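Researcher: Sequence recovery benchmark, item below. Answer with residues only.
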């Protein structure tokens, strides 16, 4: 289990780095586009690239946020609950997320394969392929599912005695 945890953590960290790089690219393109528009020369393709990097930014960070247990939850209710109810809440949240993101990954995979087969791309001055963003969605979802499964096993193992997570 620890080997799988380490592999997922390294892959998740790599996805976070790619998401950070995507954010930097989107930011630079946005700034360049605004400045270019001011001088009547907007950057062609800035919108299309930014749209695709948004998928990488969001789905690239899901698994890493789960590793750190930094996803949003209603702390007011969670902190007032007893240890057994906290364990039940953690288990229900993990199972629900596993079901939802499994469906998302499944359909995302179908869409990514279809997008690749038809060589789907954006409309505009610069034609940017859409299938890399669709595969990024699938990769981020699958890593998130793997981490949720690891956490679910851990939550079941420590039922009634959930670890105290840092509250930011």
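Model:
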């Amino acid at each position: 289990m620890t080997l799988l945890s380490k592999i997922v953590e390294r892959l998740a960290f790599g996805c976070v780095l790619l998401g950070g790089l995507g954010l930097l690219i989107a930011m630079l393109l946005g700034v360049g586009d605004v400045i270019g528009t001011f001088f009547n020369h907007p950057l062609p393709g800035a919108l299309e690239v930014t749209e695709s990097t948004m998928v990488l930014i969001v789905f690239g960070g899901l698994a890493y946020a789960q590793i750190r247990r930094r996803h949003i939850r209603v702390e007011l209710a969670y902190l007032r609950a007893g240890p057994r109810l906290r364990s039940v809440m953690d288990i229900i949240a993990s199972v629900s997320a596993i079901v939802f993101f499994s469906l998302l990954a499944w359909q995302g995979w179908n869409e990514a394969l279809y997008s690749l087969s038809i060589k789907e791309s954006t409309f505009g001055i610069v034609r940017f392929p859409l299938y890399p963003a669709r595969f990024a969605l699938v990769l981020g979802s699958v890593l998130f599912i793997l981490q949720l499964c690891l956490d679910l096993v851990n939550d079941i193992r420590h039922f009634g005695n959930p670890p105290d997570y840092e509250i930011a």
